[in-house]
Design brief:
The chain is built from 10 helices and 6 strands, in the order E-H-E-H-E-E-H-H-H-E-H-H-H-H-H-E. It is of the alpha+beta class and about 230 residues long. The relative contact order is 0.17. InterPro entries: Glutathione-S-Trfase_C_sf, Glutathione_S-Trfase, Glutathione_S-Trfase_N, Thioredoxin-like_sf. One of its GO terms (biological process) is L-phenylalanine catabolic process. This is Glutathione S-transferase family protein.
Length: about 230
């Protein structure tokens, strides 16, 4: 197998989910290697396989050469050069998908900070800040735009593509924190959460035995935990 995809904890690692769910959904074969968050700072340990000291990282051993591809966006772009279906075939849908993925990659900082990803729990959040409200309103606007223009059920049309992978962690966040994104966008969330690749990730998250204190503290600071479905 030419590819090894290195990711971290299924409960916490939103960046890891992006290439993992895309490769799984598109049937791109890879060796699945997990390097869990052992502490709040994993830079030194992760530097052994990634130049940034972060996950995800993709190792490509094709043609007798070992090549490391880092950053979730970098990995998606690399795969798009080698595999069909990463981006939509339609030019307008592809332009939308690429812009929306780039916006997720560089934006929505309040959503990331206030609603940290934890697949296995449900949280009653504290009072929503204006900045978080703006992020949620923009999500709704963006998702509705894609669904209206390209007919759904995915964000850029009838097929799962990279733009859905980039927003896959947000689908888990919407469920975890009960975020109101409106009925049309919620239908996309529900469709994503029922996707076989997302269900595989969720099942692995619920079975994880390890916990990392700083990630758990971030979740606790976001609101009151009302349910925990993790097995251990």
């Amino acid at each position: 197998m030419a590819y090894t995809l290195i990711t971290a904890n299924r409960n916490y690692s939103s960046w890891s989910l992006r290439p993992w769910v895309l490769m799984t959904a598109l049937g791109i074969a890879f060796e699945d290697r997990i390097e869990p968050f052992a502490s709040a700072t994993n830079y030194a340990a992760f530097r052994s396989f990634s130049p940034t000291g972060q996950v995800p990282a993709l190792i490509d051993r094709a043609n007798g050469e070992e090549r490391t591809i880092w950053d979730s966006l970098g990995i998606i772009l690399y795969l798009a050069d080698r595999h069909p279906g990463v981006w939509p075939a339609d030019e307008a849908a592809r332009a939308f998908a690429q812009c929306a993925a780039a916006e997720m990659h560089s934006g929505f900082s309040t959503l990331r900070n206030d609603c940290t990803m934890n697949v296995g729990v449900r949280v009653e959040p504290h009072v929503q800040s204006p900045a978080l409200g703006r992020d949620i309103a923009r999500l709704r606007e963006l998702w509705e735009q894609g669904l209206d223009r390209f007919g759904g059920p995915f964000l850029a049309g009838s097929s799962f593509t990279a733009v859905d992978a980039f927003y896959a962690p947000v689908a888990f966040r919407v469920r975890t924190y009960g975020l109101d994104v409106g009925p049309q966008a919620q239908a996309w969330v529900d469709h994503m959460l029922a996707h076989p690749a997302m269900l595989r990730w969720e099942q692995a998250a619920l079975a994880e035995s390890w916990r990392e204190d700083s990630h758990e503290a971030e979740m606790g600071a976001a609101g009151r935990i009302i349910a925990d479905y993790r097995a251990v």
